Structure formats: structure tokens, C-alpha cells
Amino acid sequence: MSRRIYLDCNSSTALDARVLEVLIQELKEEEGNPSSIHFHGQQCRRKLDESRQIIARFLGVRPNEIIFTSGGTEGACLLLNGVMQHFTTGHIITSSVEHSCVFETVKDLEKKGYQASFLPVGSLGAVEPHAVKEALRPDTRLITLMAVNNETGVKTDIESIAAIAQQAHIPFVVDGVALLGKESFNIPQGVSAIFFSGHKIHAPKGIGFSVCKQTLKMNPLCTGGTQEFGRRAGTENLPGIIALAQAISILANEQEMITSYLSARRNQLEEGVMARLEGVIVNGDGQRVSNTTNLSFVGVDGESLLMNLDLEGISVSHGSACSSGALEPSRILLNMGLPLPRANSSIRFSVGRHTTEEDIVRAVDGIVRVVERLRKKGY
């Protein structure tokens, strides 16, 4: 039996063998708490500090700006709630195509009395800077947007929006989850905080981090301890943090090569499918990161396509893993203005470092075979 083909790397990635090695070693050795003052505790503290320095150096920030979390969802909740708790009222600017961890958190803040503007994006797939500038109000307290859309791979012009936020003296929180590991980037000066997730870059699940400027006023989501510079209480997940630092070290050494490889595999898939099938549309007109393509197959139901591809041994997604269990059209694609039938016929393909040329050849064959069969049956 041939191995299954995994094309859902925006949902999660496999552990890199080098990351797994340091994770297992730390799980074997770990003894002590980084907050303890005895020998074992201080050994843990040294490893924690070294890991923080590796990540800070990679991103060009200060070590005390790195806050370790459990992942992207906690990062969003920590930063958005933490900032807005400083105000009894106020206005938030976000978009209609954010990941649910931001979208639903802002919705919850609305229930608490804050006001929000969910900016439209159109077929581009990303908020344009002028729309952010036009949405500013005297009581705007926060701007929060994604750097890269997790469903389409479309990039937001974070640099221009950061300049707008900085000029207006408004905190700007960025969702960087779908950006990290895809290409090199710099964090613009006007970004107040940006959050990331480990399991999207071949590190373990359950570990992530936020880069948070010391000047950003925010309350901690978890209290009860002074860990993470008083911004995130609780004993640190040291094995996860060490594994995360190893994953970041790999990016520091190999990012250019990784980006080139991901782009080649994504293009191989996209071009291969579109050369052999009619009625295939790429969703998202904006610039994209290297690994993602969102395709609509005219006349085919996306859920039927997803399930039939799964039976063919090809794992793909109908949208975000946080919501793809629901048999509903993508909120993101609908908010881009796609007609319901086109949104319903969409599939997200996201390749990774372990995706081979042979995987793509087999995947294209499988996709063509399934789409032709479903179209013939009227599915």
C-alpha cells in the first residue's frame, strides 16, 4: 500500500526529526522548575533563557519581548483581551477574514460593550491599508489583522498598516501563524505584538509564542505567577520551548531553501491540476505565501471532493482546521465575495517540507480522477 499524501500543512505539520531528537532528550532529562532557585531549577532556567534568545535573535527582537504560550489561539486571546481590558469602552479594527481565534475573540469583546469594524476584503483576499486608515476613529483602541490568510495564503500589507497604526498611536496586534516558516520577514516598527504557533513549523503541538513590546499595556490572561515577565502565569512548558527553539534554529539556517522548495511544490500542484482540468479557479487575487493554494472546482461539492480524496489517500482541507469539521461554506471565502457555489466547491491545499515531487504527481492524478468522477455523477 502506497503511503498517504498529506497536503494540509496549514492545519499542522509533522515534527522535524531534529526537533523530535531534542524533545525526547529533554523529556528524558527534565527535572526541576525554572522558577526554583536550587541547582535543578537554575539548569531549567538556563535552558529557558537560551531558547528565548534563539527565537529573539531570529526575529531581531529583545529576549524580554518573547512570551511563551500554548499556541496561536492563546496568543490571540492573551493579546486582544489583555489590551482591551485597559479600556472600559472603545473601538477595534479587524477584518472579515480573520482566523476564528481573532474573529471570535473580537465578537466576544463586542458582547462586553466594545465596538468593532470588520473590514471587507473583496477578491484580493486581504485588507488594504487605505481601508484601515479610513476606519480609524477617535476611540479606536486596537487594530488586529493577520499577516497571511490561513485559507488562501494571501498576504496583508502589514508594513503599510503598521505605519498607519504607529502614526495614530494605536496598538497593532498581528496574527503571524500562517507566515512563520513560509518566507523571511521583518517585524515592522509599528507592530505592537505578533503571535505564532509551533506546530505549524514542525515543532510540537501545544507550544507557541508572542512577540510583545514592553511598551504595550496589557493585562495577563492567566494570573497566579510572575512567569513570562508577569504577562503569562504558569510553569513553562520547557520541553516544548526547547523543541520550538530548535525548529526556529532550522528556519534561521534554511528558510531561503525552504521557501524555494515550498513554492516549487505548490506551483507543481496548481499548474498540474489546472493543465488537466477545466473549471478550476484560484481563490485570492493578492500576493500569496509559498505553500498555499485555494482552488474551486466548478460543478463539484467541496465536501464530497474532500471525502473522496481522503478515500484516495490524499488529505486536504475545506478550510481552517479549527472549523473544517462543520459542513458549512468558508466564512472567509464568502466574505471575499465569492458566490456560494464557488465557495462550496473550494479546497485548500497546503504543502510542507516533507511533501515530495512524487507526492504531487500522485496527488494531481488523484485529484483529476476524483473531480472527473464527481462531475460525471453530478456531485
TrEMBL record:
Domain Aminotransferase class V residues, every copy: 5-360
Single annotated GO MF: metal ion binding
EC number(s) stated in the UniProt entry for this protein: 2.8.1.7
Pfam families named in the record: Aminotran_5 (PF00266)
InterPro entries (alphabetical): Aminotrans_V_dom, Cysteine_dSase, PyrdxlP-dep_Trfase, PyrdxlP-dep_Trfase_major, PyrdxlP-dep_Trfase_small
Signal peptide coordinates: none
Alphabetical keyword list: Iron, Iron-sulfur, Metal-binding, Pyridoxal phosphate, Transferase
Reaction catalysis annotation: (sulfur carrier)-H + L-cysteine = (sulfur carrier)-SH + L-alanine
Keyword Zinc-finger included in the entry's annotation: no
Enzyme class: transferase
UniProt keyword Iron, yes or no: yes
Entry cofactors: pyridoxal 5'-phosphate
Matches recorded under PANTHER family: CYSTEINE DESULFURASE, CYSTEINE DESULFURYLASE FAMILY MEMBER
Family recorded in the similarity comment: Belongs to the class-V pyridoxal-phosphate-dependent aminotransferase family. NifS/IscS subfamily.
Protein name: Putative cysteine desulfurase
Organism: Candidatus Protochlamydia naegleriophila
Upper taxonomic lineage: Bacteria, Pseudomonadati, Chlamydiota, Chlamydiia, Parachlamydiales
Gene from which this protein is expressed: nifs3
